[in-house]
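Re-run with default settings, no changes from the original entry. Doing this only to confirm the output is reproducible before filing.
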Amino acid sequence: MTFDQDLDCAGLLCPLPVLKARKRMIVMAPGAVLRVLATDRMAEIDLPHFCNQAGHDYLGCTPFGTATAHFLRCGRRQ
């Protein structure tokens, strides 16, 4: 999947991947895609929930080495 920005959160525990994704997405243009690399299994629950609450689209995830790559499309500006 193509993406516009990359955020490496490998090794970080909940809630840091969500907090860092939120901070990055605040300055992204609507429609841009952020790839978040996370090793914390809770990211599979937390990132879709964050997207739902913040008006972004969670596009899914895929294994990426020892991490999981999560793809988030930026919605409205916050």
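The domain at 5-73 is CATH 3.30.110.40 (Translation Initiation Factor IF3). The chain has one domain: 5-73.
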